[in-house]
């Protein structure tokens, strides 16, 4: 975790901002939704506070003043490999409006402006909705990360490695039409 402040990024519908203490319970509520907890496993109020609140790599996804999800923007520190890894989740009731795509596009544009040349994602191989959304944004399937994620009960599942590069989108991906 860094100590630098997170500057809000405002799009047509989405605002990305720092996670505050008041976001803990709304984030936990989203993380406990069945369609979210299927992929983001084992969250408690304490874990949300530890991993999200005050973490400058975490961003709240806010729509119309409501906390509807969050994302991690994990920028690598090696100048030879200017890559950022992103992870996000979105409340079930806000899916289908391309909110996640707008959030990713806004964050990617900021990363590209800062000199990052590649953004990667690694959704669970069975998370078809997320994969389709990422492809609409311009992410390419690179390969399968075998035995990547420990799932409830201890079994392992694969993830799909995806990336989007600045050479494909010099200014960053287009925002979804509104």
How do you describe this structure in short?
This protein has helices at 24-31, 34-37, 45-51, 99-113, 128-137, and strands at 9-10, 14-17, 58-63, 66-75, 83-90, 118-121, 140-150, 156-165. By secondary structure, it is of the alpha+beta class. The termini are far apart.
Would you report the number of β strands?
8
Tell me the Rg in angstroms. Answer: 15 Å
Question: Into which percent range does the helicity of residues fall?
Answer: 10-25%
What strand order characterises the main sheet? 1-2-3-4-5-6-8-7
Overall 3D form = globular
What is the helix tally? 5
Q: Mean of residue pLDDT?
A: 94
Largest sheet features:
8 strands, mixed
Question: H/E series, N to C?
Answer: EEHHHEEEHEHEE
Calculate the terminal CA-CA distance, rounded to whole Å. 34 Å
Low-confidence parts lasting 5 or more residues at pLDDT below 50? none
Oligomer: single chain
- Provide the β-strand percentage band: 25-35%
Secondary structure class reads alpha+beta
Structural descriptors:
178 residues; alpha+beta; 8-stranded mixed β-sheet; 5 helices; 25% helix; 31% strand
What does this structure look like?
- This protein has 178 residues and is an alpha+beta fold.
- The chain has helices at 24-31, 34-37, 45-51, 99-113, 128-137; strands at 9-10, 14-17, 58-63, 66-75, 83-90, 118-121, 140-150, 156-165.
- It has an 8-stranded mixed beta sheet with strand order 1-2-3-4-5-6-8-7, sandwiched between helices.
- Strand 7 (140-150) and strand 8 (156-165) form a beta hairpin.
- Helix 4 (99-113) packs across helix 5 (128-137).
- The longest helix has 15 residues, at 99-113.
- The chain is globular and about 40 Å long.
- The mean pLDDT is 94.
